[in-house]
Amino acid sequence: MATRTNSTDDLLAPLTLAVGQEELLLDRAVREVVAAARAADADTDVRDLMSEQLQPGTLAELTSPSLFSERKVLVVRNAQDLSADSVKDVKAYLAAPVEEIVLVLLHAGGAKGKALLDAARKAGAREVQCPKMTKPADRLAFVRGEFRGLGRSATPAATEALVDAIGSDLRELASAAAQLCADVEGTIDEAVVGRYYTGRAEASSFTVADRAVEGRTAEALEALRWSLSTGVAPVLITSALAQGVRAIGKLASAPRGARPGDLARDLGMPPWKIDRVRQQMRGWSADGVSVALRAIAEADAGVKGGGDDPEYALEKAVVAVARAARPRR
């Protein structure tokens, strides 16, 4: 889990420093600040910039006084890659931050850009650690924290089984923990994890969804049959299908030319997913999205007791989604 290293818990502190290379934790650190800012002012202006976009003078322009005194959140990603002149601008700003503006610096840590890191800490930054979790013990602690954050309890054996089944991807681990909490009542134990996620690493419900929304019918059906044979719960597959199609619908309706960071914020997707969905949405139409969602809804009802053959219901849905992804001309 991301951890703070100073005493302030003020999400609206003038400066938040998120240090590390774990993308999920970095994205969460940003989302927490943005959510707090918008809770205080729904009209908060959020600017999400990569380091190369913060040219000399850009920060001064973005933090200049406004006639409307609007609240702003300025996010600078890969701050360790800022040019020397841009680092000077940031340091000068840290000496006299502007009221109603929250600056969030995402820094990989390490030796590169250390002068900026030191300056931010000296300025009293609210710091959040977002390290890569390379050790199994770290991933176990992360999953335990996910369950706690969702207000649920899981046995140690269940936590270990989930990490063994899912692997090292924190996004997948977080998604799996959330799904279990949504579908299962009471304490989550090893038997529950086994029922949902046996073979999960080899045959993911998201793999089924990815192949289907890409229009690859045969591969999607093969992944579906393997998933079911290894014990993946049918409800997870309909959930993954729905998420995949909805993501395409959201991105298709987004303004053209918008930056990935802005799209990620507005659509509630992590930036890495924007690129993936862009590739998957080729060939999709608004009618195709509607048809696919109806088919998934029917399958979801079928796997939850509304039909006699859950596997057949899933196969129909997968075929319908794949066909919708490749409409006839």
Describe the model.
The chain is an alpha/beta fold. Helix content is 57%, strand content 9%. The chain contains 15 helices and 6 strands. It has helices spanning 23-40, 58-62, 84-95, 114-122, 136-149, 156-166, 170-183, 190-197, 205-213, 217-229, 234-252, 260-267, 271-280, 286-306, 310-325; strands at 3-4, 15-19, 45-50, 72-77, 101-107, 126-129. Strands 1-6-2-5-4-3 form a 6-stranded mixed β-sheet, sandwiched between helices. Strand 3 (45-50), helix 2 and strand 4 (72-77) form a beta-alpha-beta unit. Helix 5 crosses helix 6 (156-166). The termini are far apart.
Could you name the key traits of this structure?
six-stranded mixed sheet, alpha/beta, 15 helices
